[in-house]
Description:
By secondary structure, this protein is an alpha/beta fold. It is 30% helix and 17% strand. The protein is built from 13 helices and 16 strands. It has helices at 49-60, 71-80, 90-97, 113-122, 137-150, 164-174, 211-215, 241-250, 252-258, 310-323, 376-384, 394-414, 441-444, and strands at residues 2-3, 39-44, 61-67, 85-87, 103-106, 126-129, 154-156, 181-187, 265-270, 282-288, 297-302, 339-344, 348-352, 359-362, 425-428, 433-434. The strands form two sheets. A ten-stranded mixed beta sheet has the order 1-14-13-12-8-11-10-9-15-16. The radius of gyration is 22 Å and the shape is globular.
Amino acid sequence: MRRKSNRRDFIKTSTMTSAGFWIAGSLHAEGNASPNERIRFACVGVSGKGESDTHDASRFGDVVAICDIDNEKLDAAAAKYPHAKKFYDWRDLLDEMSGGIDAVTISTPDHSHAVAAAAAMRLGKHAFVQKPLTHDIYEARMLGHIAREQKVATQMGNQGTANRNLRKAAQMVQAGILGPVHEVYVWTNRPIWPQGKPRPEPKPVPQHLHWNLFLGPAPRRPYGDDYHPFSWRGWWDFGTGSLGDMACHTMNMPFMALDLRDPIRVQAETTGHNRESYPSKSKITYEFAATARHPELKLHWLDANQKPPRELMQQFNKKNNAAAGEGDKKQHRGFADAGSLLVGEKGMLYSPGDYGGDYELSGVAEVSTSIETMDHFEEFVRAVKGGPAATSNFPDYASPLTETVLLGNLAIWVAHEADVPGKKIEWDAKYLTAKNAPEVAHIIRREYRPGYTL
C-alpha cells in the first residue's frame, strides 16, 4: 500500500504531530505584531540552498539585507532584491542592521551555522537555519537553549517535516500498527562530492571570494580547489559529510515516529579517512535504549549507495502480498537509491526517497489519522507572528534530531582505518560525553578562531 504526497497536501492550517508546543516571541520587542505585518528578513548565504531560502523569505516578508562571502553570488542576489543592503560579513550585518530586521535565514556552510544563529537569536531575532542545524553536537544543544531563553521562533530547513505523508507515517507508527520496532534502516546515495582525499594544493584566492570570511570560525588554511562553493561538505573543518547532508531529511520520519533521541552507543565502519576529509563510504549502527515509544532498537545508516539486505525486501514483498488481494499483488525489484525502512514485529514501513514523502506498508493496514500541514517556511512565518511553534523548532525537535545525526560522525572519526570497525562509543547524552573515547572531545565541541564565539 503506497501513499504519495502532492501539492494539495499543503493546506493552510496546521496541527503538530510530534514536537512539543511553545509560543514564539513577538515580531517586535514592544509586543505582538499584527499577523498582517511584513517581516523584515536578513538572509545570510544567498546561493545554492540559500537562493531558495531567500526566495521563501521574499514570499512572506521583505528581504532588507543579504550577505555572502562570494561577490558574484551576492551581486546576483542583489539584482533580485535591489532594496536589500549588501554585506560580506554577517557580523557587520547584525551590528548595523540589528534595529531593522526581525528574522534571519542562515544558509552557509555547516561550520558557520551556530555562531551566526546564536548571535542573531541573542539580539532577539527569529532564526531559520539550514540542515544540519549545526556542525557540532554541543552547538546543537546550545542553540536549543538559546532559542528557548530568548523566546524566539526557530526552524531548521528539513522541509520534509511539513509533508503530510511523513507526518501520517509517523503517527501510524506511534499508534502501533507495526508493533514493537526493533530495527530501522536509513540510506542515501551521498556523497556526490569528493571525499576521502588529502587537502588540495594551495592556490591564489579568487578575487570574488572573501576567503577569510569563508573560513569563519574554522582553523586558518590556504585556499584550494574542492572547498567553494559545494565540496566543502566533505571536509571535517567545514561540513558534516554525507550523514550531515542528508540524515536530517532521510532520518526525519523514523525520528518523528519513534522519538529517536539520545542513542546510548554508536559504531562505524568506513573505507578509511585521513581525518581531513570524510570517508568515501561508511555504515553506522546506532543503539537506543528502550523508551515508551520503542523497545531497544538499532538504527543502521548506510551511505554511498549501500542498501539494506536484499532479504528484507523479499520479506517486505512476502508480507505485502500475503495481505493483498489477487489483483494487488506486486514485487519490488529492490530498494530505491535512498530511503528508510522500519521493521516491526507486525509489519514494515518503507519510505523510498530522501524526504519521507512516500510510504508503503507491508503486512499491516493503514489506520485513520488526523493530519494537517502547511508550507514549511510558512510554518516558520506563522511562529514569527506569534502562532504555534514550527514542528522543526530548535528546542523541541531540530536540536535533538541534529544531536542524534551528528553522533554518527564521532563513530566515523574513530573508524579511520579502512574496513575495520571502529571503537563502539558509549554515549552520555546528558553530559554530551563519549565515556570511553576522550579522543573525540574536539568533534563534540570544537574551538573557534578568535573573533567567533557561541
